[in-house]
């Protein structure tokens, strides 16, 4: 189920943000993500955020949350700009990112985002989702090359 972010989601969403960034961007020092963590945690409640929540079955798990709904990913927007899609490590490659993307595609006629060139998995995901590379840029904060990618809902 996808729903709007609630203040009670903050700790789980921030945890997913930090873990996902550290894992997907191993070419950027871990300290960069940890340094930005407090600011991101402060900004999340003010952003347009949708969370993907699913019931955990607890099979093979001694997780205290077993049998309860748990946030497995989220997408953050600033109007038409996707600040990011983040999926917990245990839920990757299970369609969570695609469902979040489809959800916001129904809400927007155009979407854009920046993605690091070295994040090959994400670049391929966005291309499969109909995004095209508009131009190459350099992230001023990290010095890493990135793509500006755009998706448009073209009535057909």
From TrEMBL:
Family matches, as CDD domains: NAT_SF (cd04301)
InterPro entries recorded: Acyl_CoA_acyltransferase, GNAT_dom
Keyword annotations: Acyltransferase, Transferase
Record-given protein name: GNAT family N-acetyltransferase
Enzyme class: transferase
Taxon lineage: Bacteria, Bacillati, Bacillota, Clostridia, Lachnospirales
Known EC number: 2.3.1.-
GO function terms (MF aspect): acyltransferase activity, transferring groups other than amino-acyl groups
Domain N-acetyltransferase, first and last residues per copy: 1-154
């Amino acid at each position: 189920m996808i729903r709007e972010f609630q203040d009670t989601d903050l700790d789980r969403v921030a945890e997913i943000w930090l873990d996902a960034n550290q894992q997907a961007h191993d070419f950027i020092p871990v300290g960069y993500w940890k340094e930005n963590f407090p600011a991101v945690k402060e900004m999340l409640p003010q952003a347009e955020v949708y969370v993907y929540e699913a019931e955990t079955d607890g099979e093979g798990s001694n997780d205290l949350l077993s049998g309860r709904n748990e946030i497995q990913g989220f997408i953050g927007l600033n109007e038409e700009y996707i600040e990011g899609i983040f999926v917990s490590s245990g839920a990757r490659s299970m369609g969570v990112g695609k469902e979040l993307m489809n959800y916001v595609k129904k809400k927007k006629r155009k979407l854009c985002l920046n993605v690091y060139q070295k994040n090959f998995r994400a670049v391929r995901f966005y291309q499969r989702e109909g995004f095209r590379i508009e131009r190459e840029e350099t992230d001023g904060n990290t010095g890493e090359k990135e793509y500006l990618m755009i998706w448009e809902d073209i009535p057909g």
